[in-house]
Amino acid sequence: MVRYQTLKRMAGTHHAQDRSEVNVTGKKMYKQKGTGGARHGDKSVPQWRGGGKAFGPKPRSHAIDLTKKVRALALRHALSAKAKAGEIVVLDKASSAEGKTGALKNQFAKLAWNNVLIIDGAELEPAFARAARNIPNIDVLPVQGINVYDILRRKKLVLTKAAIDALEARFK
């Protein structure tokens, strides 16, 4: 599932010009016989400087297929692995009184949260999201954005009551 997510987000926009795309003349370099040199056609071939790249990268999708049932199962397994390890924390709601990064950072330091994924309900509180976005190793997502890669890359998973209700409804 992690491989699926990382490959799906790759842009795949890399491109190199091949011999049909480089801007050189199509004229034969020199005559076929009598020069003592090898036979050559035009200058767009890869062995010449300024020629096209042989088998260079072309724009493509790197994505692989994974069925919906397998993706849902992977999410269940990631959540249960965090639960077994005792790395899930449940909050009533994720909110910040003044919406300041420094204050939130101090709160997280008191709780020893230095590598955390926080999942809130359908709507994030704007002040909390704004305060948390500049803290390193802290991610805040709505419940629709929950994914296996983010769950596994953070040490602790913090869920709000709204997120738990939404996840229970999703897995029924």
Summarize the structure.
By secondary structure, the protein is α/β, with parallel strands linked by helices.
Distance between the termini: 21 Å
Spatial order of strands in the largest sheet: 1-4-2-3
Helix content: 25-40%
Q: Regarding CATH, which class of the domain at 68-170?
A: Alpha Beta
CATH architecture classification name of the domain at 68-170: 3-Layer(aba) Sandwich
How many strand elements? 4
Low-confidence stretches: none
> What is CATH's topology name of the domain at 68-170?
Ribosomal Protein L4, Chain: A
Give the CA-based shape: elongated
| Order of helical and strand elements | HHEHEHEHEH
CATH superfamily of the domain at 68-170: Ribosomal protein L4/L1
Rg for CA atoms: 27 Å
Main beta sheet: strand number and arrangement? 4 strands, parallel
Number of helices: 6
Structural class: alpha/beta
Mean pLDDT: 94
Strand content: 5-15%
